[in-house]
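Q: what does this look like with iron/sulfur cluster bound?
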Amino acid sequence: MPHFIDTTKCASCTVKACEETCFRGIYKVDTRNGQHICRIVRDVSWCLRCHKCTTACPHHALQVIDEVTMKENATK
Ligand code: SF4
Ligand code: SF4
């Protein structure tokens, strides 16, 4: 179940919605030179695919793609 983070979008972010929203502790937001960078810090097998993080991120920087969707896209 791949997680994708477009960290270029995190650079202009002023919140840590990903870290605060994910109740499974998947994300951690570091701040370097005043800019945020979201990282995955936990085995993503803990992810429940609830999509609370993708909805909460104000910059649409997160994607959580499940294996079923990946297989469907591969056969198109
Ligand atoms: S993933 Fe979204 S909420 Fe988290 S730091 Fe990046 S832009 Fe901000
Ligand atoms: S989909 Fe849910 S459990 Fe998975 S990383 Fe996002 S908020 Fe956390």
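The mean pLDDT is 91. The chain has one domain: 3-74.
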